[in-house]
Prior knowledge:
It contains six helices and eight strands, in the order ααββββββββαααα. By secondary structure, it is α+β, with helices and mostly antiparallel strands. α1 packs antiparallel against α2 (50-93).
Amino acid sequence: MAILSDHEGPQQKQQTPTSPSSFSFNTVLDPSNPLGFLDSALNFLSQKSNVLKNDVSPLVKEFKKRIKAEEDSKKAEEKRRAEKKKREEEKKRMRVPNKGNGLDMESHSWAQTLQEVTITVHVPPGTKSKDVVCEIKRKSVKVGLRGHSPILDGELFETIKIDDCIWNLEDQKTVSVLLTKCDGMNWWKSLLKGGPEIDIQKAEPEPSRLSDLDPEIRSTVEKMMFDQQQEQLGLPTSKEIENESLLKLFMAQNPNFSNKNPNIDFSNVNMK
Length: 272
């Protein structure tokens, strides 16, 4: 008679074979940075697999170069955009100059040529010269009435020639101050440092005054005016035009050079 029993003998432990090395790759693919994912994957393989290490290492180095180049490109683009935004914000703050290439303020106005700055300060009618306080220094100017706070007081945008500066009272209601610039070849963005600025690209010198300039200075001024106008229109400056002419002359004198070197691009050459 056979007897069935629910008693079982000691169970043998089952052993699950384990792999000699455990692989765990948890990097998530970022669509905006695929090279970063590949870099992580290749690094992982080169560290975990001796078989692939020799083949993967060069790939890792190559992808790292590409990643660095991409990062540098992004940084350069971000910097360019930041600089562009800064220029746009600065331009928004700039004002359109008046007919005299300066600004009209509530208490005074100023105008300029490339050589001089003229300041007009309004004072009460009937003011006498002895009541006017006008202090002109190399880097500053102060205009007002005795016993009162200055109407105009501050550091000039650029230095001036004191010996060539004068002031006078006109019609007992206007103080006119004439300042001579030390550098007679540039526009002032503002009368005083920290004051409202004008867009100097919109400054317009009097054509009749150019004929009075020294030939060398006149040539420089005309070149500066031309370059400003070209930049506004998005056209080549005088230097860029000169470089292009030199390049054309070189190619004309050396016709075989371009045939022997078809892959050379001269478009970005800067000839000094």
